[in-house]
C-alpha cells in the first residue's frame, strides 16, 4: 500500500537485472495517474464528451481522455472549490517507468503502451527494440502480453493486479485472471530464479 513497487518486487528486480534476465512490469493503465483529484472537495476533471475522468500525463503536462483523445491543460485550481490541492491518484505506466528509473538508474527501461505506440513509425522502432532485447526492464500495459514478441523473461511483475477487478464490467474478474495467466506463461517454466510476482491488496 502507498508504494509503486513493493520491497519484494524491488529485490527480485535487482536480482534479475544483475543476471541480465529480462524484467516485465505490467499494469493496465496508461499515463502517470488515472485521475487528478481535488483533496478539498473531491472533484475530478472529466471529459465533457465522455463524462469519464481525464487521465494525467506528467510527461506531456496535460489531462487527456482515454476514449475520445480529448485534452485539457492542467488546471492550477479546482473548478469546484478553488483549491490548489490537486493531486494525481492511481499509478499508470508513466509513473512506474519513472519509479524504475529512479531506483535503477543504470537499467535500460522501455515503456510500451497506447501512448508510446500511437505513431506507426515510432511503434515499429519500439517493437524492434522489444524483439532485439534492447532493454533491461519493460514497463507496459497488456498490449505487451498479446503481441507474442517477448523474449525469455527472468521476472514478470503485475504492479496493480487489483485494478482490473474494479472496472464496471461483469467480466472484470475473468479478464483479470486471463491477464495474470498470460503473464505467468511468459515466465514458464518456473525455475533457475524465474519468477512471477503479483502485487495485490486482496491476496
- Strand order within the widest sheet? 7-8-1-9-10
Mind telling me the C-alpha Rg? 18 Å
Distance between the termini: 13 Å
Order of helices and strands: HEEEEEEHEHEHEHE
Mean pLDDT: 83
The chain-level structural class is alpha/beta
The quaternary state of the protein chains shown equals single chain
Largest sheet: 5 strands, parallel
* Low-confidence segments: none
Principal-axes geometry comes out as globular
Strand element count:
10
What fraction strand? 15-25%
Number of helices: 5
- Percent helix: 25-40%
Question: What's the arrangement of secondary structure elements?
Answer:
Elements: H1 7-18, E1 22-26, E2 33-38, E3 55-57, E4 62-64, E5 71-73, E6 86-91, H2 93-103, E7 109-112, H3 120-131, E8 137-140, H4 143-146, E9 153-158, H5 172-186, E10 195-198
Parallel strand pairs: 1-8, 1-9, 7-8, 9-10
Antiparallel strand pairs: 2-6, 3-4, 4-5
Question: What features would you describe in this structure?
Answer:
This protein has helices at 7-18, 93-103, 120-131, 143-146, 172-186, and strands at 22-26, 33-38, 55-57, 62-64, 71-73, 86-91, 109-112, 137-140, 153-158, 195-198. The longest helix has 15 residues, at 172-186. It is globular and about 55 Å long. The strands form three sheets. Strands 7-8-1-9-10 form a five-stranded parallel beta sheet, sandwiched between helices. The protein has 203 residues and is α/β, with parallel strands linked by helices. The model has no long low-confidence stretch (mean pLDDT 83).
Compact summary:
With 203 residues, the chain is α/β, with parallel strands linked by helices. It contains five helices and ten strands; from the N terminus they run αββββββαβαβαβαβ.
Amino acid at each position: 500500500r502507498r508504494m509503486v513497487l513493493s520491497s519484494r518486487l524491488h529485490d527480485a528486480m535487482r536480482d534479475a537485472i544483475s543476471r541480465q534476465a529480462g524484467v516485465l512490469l505490467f499494469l493496465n493503465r496508461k499515463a502517470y495517474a488515472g485521475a487528478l483529484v481535488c483533496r478539498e472537495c473531491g472533484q475530478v476533471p472529466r471529459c465533457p464528451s465522455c463524462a469519464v475522468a481525464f487521465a494525467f500525463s506528467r510527461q506531456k503536462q496535460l489531462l487527456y481522455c482515454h476514449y475520445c483523445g480529448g485534452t485539457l491543460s492542467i488546471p492550477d485550481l479546482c473548478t469546484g472549490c478553488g483549491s490548489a490541492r490537486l493531486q494525481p491518484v492511481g499509478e499508470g505506466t508513466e509513473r512506474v517507468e519513472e519509479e524504475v528509473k529512479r531506483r535503477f538508474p543504470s537499467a535500460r527501461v522501455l515503456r510500451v503502451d497506447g501512448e508510446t505506440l500511437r505513431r506507426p513509425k515510432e511503434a515499429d522502432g519500439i517493437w524492434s527494440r522489444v524483439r532485439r532485447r534492447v532493454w533491461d526492464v519493460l514497463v507496459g500495459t497488456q498490449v505487451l502480453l498479446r503481441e507474442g514478441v517477448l523474449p525469455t523473461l527472468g521476472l514478470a511483475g503485475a504492479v496493480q493486479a487489483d485494478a482490473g477487478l474494479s472496472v464496471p464490467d461483469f467480466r472484470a474478474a475473468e479478464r483479470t485472471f486471463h491477464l495474470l495467466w498470460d503473464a505467468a506463461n511468459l515466465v514458464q517454466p518456473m525455475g533457475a530464479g524465474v519468477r512471477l510476482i503479483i502485487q495485490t491488496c486482496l491476496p
